[in-house]
Amino acid sequence: MEKRGLYKVDLIFEKVDPKEVLTQAYNMKSEQIIQQVLDSGLKGRGGAGFPTGLKWKYTAAVKEPEKYVVCNADEGEPGTFKDREILDKVAYKVYGGMAIAGKAIGAKHGIVYLRSEYRFLLPQLMKELESFHKLVKGIGYDFRINYCLGSGAYICGEESALFESVEGGRGEPRNKPPYPTTSGVFGKPTSINNVETLVTAMMIIKHGPESYSQLGTKDSRGSKVFSISGDTPIPGIFELELGMSVQEFVDEFGDGDTKAVQVGGASGFCVPRKRFQYTVIGFEGVPTGGSMKLFNSSRSMYNVLHNYLDFFAEESCGQCTPCRVGCQQLLKGVEKVKKGEVKATYLNELLKLADTMKVASKCGLGQSVGNAFRTIVENFREEIIY
Amino acid sequence: MISLSINNERVSVQPGTTVLDAARKLNINIPTLCNHPDLCVAGNCRVCVVEQTGARTLIAACAMPAAEGMDIHTNTLKVRNARRHIVELLLSEHRSDCTKCYKNQKCELQALANEFAFGDTIFLDLVEDHPYTIDRSSPSFIKDDSKCIHCQRCVRTCFELQHISAIAVANKGMHQKISSFHDRPMSHVVCTNCGQCINRCPTGALVEKTYIDHVWDAIYDKDKHVIVQTAPAVRVALGEDLGYDPGERVTGKMVTALRQLGFDSILDTDFTADLTIMEEGTELLTRLKKALVDGDKKTAFPMFTSCSPGWIKFIEHKYPEFLHNLSTCKSPQQMFGALAKTFFAQKMKLDPSGIVSVSIMPCTAKKYEADRPEMRASGYKDVDYVLTTRELAIMIKQAGIDFRNLEPAHYDSIMGDSTGAGVIFGATGGVMEAALRTAYELVTGREVPFPNLNITPVRGMEGVKEATIKIEGCTKDWKFLEGAELKVAIAHGLANANKIMKQVRNGKSPYHFVEIMACPGGCLGGGGQPIPTSMEIRKKRMKAVYSEDEHMVLRKSHENPDVIAIYKEFLGKPNSHVAHELLHTHYVERESY
């Protein structure tokens, strides 16, 4: 693999003339739009990394007059705050990306599902939405966007739980299949994309897939907005090319004493110092929805793990057994190990449980609790026990 | 057709078939828990996970549609490990006081534990980590959250079958629980006490409130005369809890068993079912006369039956503006209760204060009904204790009775005679059929024009049934009905009742008379009936009900000799003053949240 350095990029926050890009997209065939996004190699920026072009292609292929573009702005992964910045700075590009997605899949309705904690952004977002509606109407689009506010549950960032929430139900993930591309919100074909994905798609239309796919690596094309926090002298939002190693990242953002980086938030992976050099940030290594949290040697990894497990035990929807009860068992288990009330080898049982949760949980939440658990317990076992 | 492979065996199934059903076709058993044949797929317990070659995770067999070329394995190491973990996880949040539990040996979690989780417990006990409630507020059932395993069968039952949602999921994560509106006690929410949730709860989290010990105390009390009445639907289901297959009629053996248990008078609710037909039929004809002859525009139509206490509470909560449409007749249980401590006491020269009146019902709402303040027409509590079919089976077992080898016997006389019309009260459409058999004959002097008195349009398991009966050749008194078309409808399950009620509220209801039963299938599918229940089982019980009817000599309520006698000796005529005092009631509006 070609060794890459750290390249800062300015794509997401780049100022563009929305009229120009949207007119350009309006004059393209929907297949052309989808092909360009496919060619760019763009994968979903929410964390799961499903190829955006494919998602659009599948949704476009369903013959149904009523379809939806949903913008997932329920940014809830601990340590992620890039969508907030994007909505704050370039909401018109989010709307633009939705209109383009609508054109690509044949949808007239857009829904932005906004995290309730971002309610304070709403007045400004609505104002921008008004001018967006005028703009796209002028160009000829038949596309309108509505807002839907979350109520504070982490699980509502999961696509099918989000649909349930939009429809007025409890935020509980659905059984899949059917997938959103055939039966999403209100049972209609839906393309649900992350805020950043939609902006990126718009920029791919503007700059062309070739120039975009020159950024990043084979498995992780393009750039990504990172939310950097923890023990760093320069916390904040940074747009970086994908494909760097954790070492390169730490060299830039660390405080000189970094012992671990949690990549991808609570549901992501903990990379210890000894693995910095060998771990690529991207789909070939550790994927991330943007959250990068640095820990220096003053931090107790037990506390870090406990914090995450506490979070999951609260934020599981509670519907399926492995996740609802598994999270509680992991939490109570590490507490008992720490207190010496059970043997340290009990951690091995818990690791097996984490494996079960990974393969038997209903949705991505329960399936990814084991990521942080395994990587922290395996790499910092002594901090958990003593 | 879709072709797939399960444990290396090929099977072809229709599109839409789940992996679970495909496996069943091959007689491969995949354990399930949250799955129930009456309810939508939930896929949340995950007990049914299986391995699909090439899939990243295991899949829930109950929720996964079979797809062409699938390669499924149900018994791999990965599956076994996951399944064991899942059962252990469920056990860790379940208060396992199995030996003392009402559902001991009838608990689906216990059965799974026996199969998959014997030996040392892996996980930590979580039960005491959460505050839990044992809600005993309802006279009908107990809701014990410490035994709940969150499968949501009850929630789906209450929503899908009954359109009530008295219980729903509250909170998330570790705090998730099955709760009522604002965590109110079950006695103070819109709950009809129908007990359908009990029939589907896999554990002891929802069970009927049992009065077995009270009844034993009464039986052993020498100063008490203990009367027992048995509802129509009990005789076609009791056998299921005593080792028989569904659909076996055990009427005669049940009577013998009751006698052996020590009840003093073994009587039949079917008798008051027949009496209900006389009262309710007369009420209907009176209403029709008022509307058609007297031109009284205030007479409310359609008239609704009032036998099902779950339905009564439903309409009191949800559609109180239509309480006038309800027949004022008490249910057969309560008519019986009122007569037991008046007419029966007089005839038998018993002091009513020394009578303990027990009823065996397929129903949990009957426990609530017996407690209603309106149900004290005799001056005492008309029905003292209500036991479900399940509770009777327990008593029979407790007494060491060898049920299978009992000689059948007959009910005692005075209030023990019945007709086929009374028996069919146990099935949806039965009250309607019984009413039509009598009313038609009363008005025209001829039998209903259906072969062998079987009014087939009102039978069957369809959610809402309707029929139109043209009345021709009326006798002199009923000339005003000549040529009239009587439109009737039947709904069972409150979700179907809701359909009828929406129509009524919109002013679009064309019916004169509507029978509504709270439970799917009518009383034979009642909340007090043996567990498990499914459409297949209910159909078998239904067949037994109609077979019981066909085996009766008398099949029309007005021919019941005990009914004829009671009008002659005690009540006068239907809807008389005495009848109103004892056999009719009124209803109350209840809050709708």
Report a brief summary of the structure.
Chain A has 386 residues and is an alpha/beta fold.
What does this structure look like?
The complex is a heterodimer of chains A (386) and B (593). With 386 residues, chain A is α/β, with parallel strands linked by helices. Chain A folds into three domains: 18-212, NADH-ubiquinone oxidoreductase 51kDa subunit (Rossmann fold, 3-Layer(aba) Sandwich); 223-296, Ubiquitin-like (UB roll) (Roll), CATH 3.10.20; 301-385, NADH-ubiquinone oxidoreductase 51kDa subunit, iron-sulphur binding domain (de novo design (two linked rop proteins), Up-down Bundle), CATH 1.20.1440.230. Chain A contains 14 helices and nine strands. Chain A has helices spanning 18-26, 30-40, 52-61, 82-105, 122-139, 159-166, 195-207, 209-213, 246-253, 301-315, 321-339, 346-360, 364-379, 381-385, and strands spanning 68-73, 109-114, 144-149, 190-194, 223-230, 236-241, 258-263, 269-272, 291-296. In chain A, the strands form two sheets. Chain A has a five-stranded mixed sheet. A four-stranded parallel sheet of chain A has the order 3-2-1-4, with helices on both faces. In chain A, strand 1 (68-73), helix 4 and strand 2 form a beta-alpha-beta unit. In chain A, helix 4 (82-105) packs parallel to helix 5 (122-139) and helix 4 packs across helix 7 (195-207). The longest helix of chain A has 24 residues, at 82-105. Chain A is globular and about 70 Å long. Chain B has 593 residues and is α/β, with parallel strands linked by helices. Chain B folds into four domains: 2-75, Ubiquitin-like (UB roll); 124-208, Alpha-Beta Plaits; 212-271 and 333-405, Rossmann fold (3-Layer(aba) Sandwich); 283-327 and 421-532 and 545-583, Fe-only Hydrogenase (Larger Subunit), Chain L, domain 3. Chain B contains 18 helices and 18 strands. Chain B has helices at residues 19-25, 77-92, 108-116, 153-161, 196-200, 212-220, 251-261, 269-292, 309-318, 332-348, 365-371, 389-398, 420-423, 430-444, 494-505, 535-550, 561-571, 577-583, and strands at residues 2-6, 9-13, 49-52, 59-60, 71-73, 134-135, 141-144, 168-170, 177-179, 206-208, 225-230, 265-268, 303-304, 355-361, 385-388, 464-470, 485-492, 513-517. Chain B has a five-stranded mixed sheet with strand order 2-1-5-3-4, with helices on both faces. A four-stranded parallel sheet of chain B has the order 12-11-14-15, with helices on both faces. In chain B, a hairpin with a 6-residue loop joins strand 3 and strand 4. Chain B is globular, with a radius of gyration of 25 Å. The two termini of chain B are 47 Å apart. The model of chain B has no long low-confidence stretch (mean pLDDT 96). The A-B interface holds A 153, 155, 170-172, 175, 177, 312-322, 324-329, 332-333, 336, 342, 349, 352-353, 355-356, 358-362, 367 and B 41-47, 49, 57-58, 60, 63-65, 78, 81-82, 85-86, 89-90, 92-93, 122-124, 126, 129, 149-150, 152, 169, 171-176.
